[in-house]
Each structure stands twice: as C-alpha cells, then as structure tokens.
User: Fold this.
Amino acid sequence: MTIRFALLGLLAASPALAQRTDTPTSLPPLKVIDVRYINRKANACVDFNEFANGAWLATDTIPAAYANTGVGRDMGDRNELVVRSVLDDAMKKRASLPATSTERKLGTYYATCMDSAATERAGLSPIQPELNAIAAVRTRDDLVRQIAAAHMRGIDVAFGYGPDVDPHDAQHYLGGFGAGGLGLPDRDYYTKKDPSSDSLRTFYVDYIAKVLTMAGEQDATAREDARNILALETQLANATLTRVARRDPSAVDHPMTLAKFHELTPNLDWTQYFHDVGLTVPAKKLNVAEPKFYEELNRLVASTPIETWKAYLRYHTIDDASRWLSTPFVNESFHFHSRFSGAKALLPRWKRCLRNADASIGEALGQAYIAKTFPPQAKARAKSVIDDIRSSFGERVKALDWMSPKTKQAALDKLAKMGEKVGYPDVWRDYSKLQVTEGPFVLNAQRAAEFEWKRTVNRPGMPVDTTEWGMTVPTVNAYYSPEKNEMVFPAGALQPQTFDPKADDAANYGALGGSWAGHELTHGFDDEGRHFDAHGNLRDWWAPSDSARFTVEAQKVVDQFDHYIQVDTFHVNGKLTLGENIADYGGLLTAYDALQRALKRNGRPGLIDGFTPEQRFFLGYAQSWRSHSRPETMRSRVTTDPHAPEQWRVNGPLSNMSQFAAAFGCKPGDPMVRAPALVPHIW
Ligand SMILES: [Zn+2]
Assistant:
C-alpha cells in the first residue's frame, strides 16, 4: 500500500496531561487556497513553498500535544468533531439499543475508553491473565503458543503473519510471513553506530526496565531482562532488510510451500501456530518475504534462553496495553514513544479514544460520518476531477518519447483496468460477531483486534475481497494498492482544504488533482508499482530498453532529493523517497493537463484573488502541503518515512516544471528552475 503522506505526526501523540482544553464544537471552515497564508514578500521563483505558505509558517505554533500542524491536523481536527458527535450520540443512547446493534457496540466501546476512573481502579489487572500465561511458558512449543496469542491481539512480536494478496495470482490470497518483532520504529535504530543512536538504545533499555519494574520485577532483574531484550531484538534487526531494499518487490517475493517452510525453520511448529491463530484450512501457498530473517528467528528460538523470550513477551504485552491502563503506565508509554514525535503532552482523552475507535472499528461509524459530511454532489465533483486525471495520464503516456509502443499499450491497459474507490465502501463491514462489554476498555480494544484477526485469518487460498477498504472513511489520507491495482480516496480526505465542491477548478485540480488523485494514480507507475501488471500480478511487462530508460530518469529524481536537507545535517534519502517523489511529480504534470482540459470544457475564469488559473493551480498544490513539524518528527522520518519533507514535495517537482516557470515568470538560473540536463522525464 503506497499512501499519500505520513501518519506519524498525526498518530504518534497518542497517549493525558492536557485534558482540560480543546473541546470546541465547531472550527472555522478551511479553504483550498487561503491567500492569508501567502508570504507576499517572498519570491515565488526562489522558494515557492515559502511564497505559498510563508505567512502561515511565520506565525504557526505547534500545540504541545501535536508532533506537527498544517493541513493534516486542520482537516483531522474538523473530521474528529464530526466523529465525536457520532460517538457521543452512540454513547448516550446505548442502553436503549439492542445488545446486538452495531451502534450500541460503538457507544460502549467509546464509553469504556472515556471511563478514566474505572481505568485507574483496574491498574494492570485487566492484562494479568495474559502475563500469567506468559509466566507459565516452559517449552519452545509454549512459546509459539504465546506468540500466536499476542498476534491475535495485534501485538507485533517475533515475526509478522497475515493473509496477503498473492503477487503471482492477484485474484487470491496466500499466507504472508514478514519480518517483525522490533520495539523501536525501524531496524536501523538497532544497527546504526553513532552517539545519538547509542543514547536512544540506552533510553529504550531504561524504558523496558521501568515497564517490567512497574509490573512487579525487581530492579536488577528488570535491567538484565531489558538488556537481553535489546540484544534479542538487535539480532532480529540485523536479519531484517532495510526499507530501501524492501522497495524492490522481487526482494520480498519468496513463494514457498508449508513443507519447505518447515525445512527452513525446524525449530518452529507452524502446524501448532496455525491451529492456535484459528487457521482452519492450512495455507497451501506461502510467501516468506525475508527467508534470512526466518533462518535467524529459527536459530534464536533455540539459542536464546526461554526466560529472555518470556521477558520479551511480557514487555511487549504491557507496552502494547499501557496506553489504555492506569496513569503511571500511560505516562511512561508517552515518555518513551513521544521521543520519536517530539510531542510534549498527551492529546485530550476524547481524541485518543476517538482515534482508537476509528482505527479499531472505524467502519461502524463511517455511515454516520458520510451522512454528515459527504453529499452525492461532492462525490460527483470529486469523481469528475479524478476522471480528468485518468484521461490526462493516458494522453501523457501516448505522447512519451522514450517508451516503446508495446510497453505503452501495456501501460494504457493498466491504467484502464485501474480501479478507484471514492468516499466510502459499497459494502460495509459486518460487526455482528464483535463482542464489546462495559469494561475494562483495554479488553474491548483486544477483542476488536481479535475480531479483525478472525475476520481475515482464513483467507489464504480464497478469492481477494475487492470491496474491502484499507483506510476508514474519516481518514485524511489516500492510497494506491499495486496488488489490487486500485486507488482509494476516503471521504475524510475529500474535504476542504484538499477539495471543495464550491471552489474553482484551478484550486481543486492543484490540490485534489495534483497531490491526491494524480499522485495515487502515478504510484501505479513508480519504481515499485511499475513491477505489477494491470491485474496486480508481479510480472515484468516492460521492454528491457524501456526499463533501462526509466531507471536512468528515476536516478535523476534520487539525485535531486539526496541533495536536499531534511533536518539538522541529515539529507533526504532519495532512494527511500523515490516512489513518492515520482508520484508527486507525475501527479502534478498530469493534473496540470487535467486542469487545461477542465478549463476548455468549463470556461476560463479571470483572475481570482489576483492569480491566474495556472498560478492558483500551483498555489492549491503547494498549500495542500502546508505543514510544520517538530524536529524530532523530522529526524524519525529520515529513517522511517518514504515521503520527503513537505517543503521539498513542493519545491522539488515544481522546479522541474516549465509550466510552473511560465506561470510565475521564473527565469533560467532562478532556484525554482533546475537546469534542463538535471530535469527527469518520466511521466
Ligand atoms: Zn504516495
């Protein structure tokens, strides 16, 4: 899944020091282009992001509970008020609803989360049965059983298992085994050798020890366990591919039978694991994404003392639950996890509960959200923008001077078969089997994770569910799925500032067209997406000479972004961010053409706010990346985020576009006009 932008900043500030503020019932509406954000003193040809967003950047402050502000937060805040009204309604009337009704479950879920007094009283007790089960582990088979139990509750330990779309038969699922089991946000945090990485690992060991102590361990034992846990995770990390390596789909494509997998990992009893996680028909076809990781895991299961594995499971079980336990656990969890986002305070409880409800059982509230926010006219207008994007991309492919006719034909076929989902699912998830009780909340959260697990666990071998959504309806984000060859735009993203059915074409084609629709569509043809065909199968449909030319041009994008500073002295990782940068650039070129198409059809307006349609197009795009992040967030993103910082997502592609230079009268030699030899020509 290739998403439009990072959710790190929006979600990281999860766990409640700031409970007293932030409960407005409405917020001022957003505009696709807000001229108050423009810095008129800045030169558009020197730094367009500063021109488009500079007046806002100069005065914006990031509230303590946030890791960043800007479009994502502004839209998210507005969506959250709508979602909150849905949840409040459900909470108030739940007692009068039938026990089986989805709305009652939703109301109960939210109410138990909001019940902070009950949470305080319960302390660690809700998860004590799980801790007891871990304490009772004696053998490797017991260990596998507890790993299975943790996976069903959504806890990432030891490795990752789940049904995936079969990359060689995209009509069916297979059993997917991936690397996993790390407590830090990326394998690089374990492998880097420098003082700041060392101090971060020390901080992690301190946190693990603290958590184990709070659960009743003696100080000295807890510290020893913490060091052993770090050592265990470091060995897993060393056997894990880097994010850049994983961008190559062939590097994580290792189809395997269960028999072969047993041979690779004789110390792990997969038959028992499948039984324990509720897989009733053994998966015939597997993809073991990283065989080297499993070789190492197999070794570690035998060589690492069982007491270390038990401490590891104990720590991850408590860490996973701690955001929903009593205050001491919440505060320790926040103290550790906010190190990566820079947030200084917890979000108000209602926001944390709302985000959990949306992430866990979000389709239960989607219909009510739609009724309040997304009328049929909005959907129709958004679809017309997306239609123009599709047509324009097709025209661009036909006009490419570097691609052979045969590959072009295959690209056009892929475009024609690309699916799109706009607004909300046609088929809503059935929550009839979900159990929600009047508390404690942490157990409701676990039941929601188990419900989700059971919903999908028996998929291997079954036909792919083409109606399913990978994001909830109120989400301010979008994605392209290469295995399904489809782009998906939740209604939460089809709101101002991204899109406004009442705004002019230029604004909508710059924002929704460029940075959303054109972006997602181009993901089907970026360095990763291009390896999948029209049906979502991993298959090379490119003539070798076309592939070679793509690679040469893509390298220019890598070089361009490698040059930019991310934060401090860290540069952007051009290889890690390549797919997103190709998507931004291709999306913009396509959306520009789409705007011309719309202007021809709908007529060309005069100046609006003093800007031509072409200028408003670029302003709409640039303001859709209005963003202000804490340095901690930017440092984490260097390692974990395939998206470049927003200022470069604006200035990078625009400085490659003659259309931009023409719109603002920029000349060769201006910083926003890159030399022709450096300009990549892809889509
Ligand atoms: Zn993207």
Remarks:
- The pocket of zinc ion is lined by residues 2-4, 519, 523, 580, 583 (CB under 6 Å).
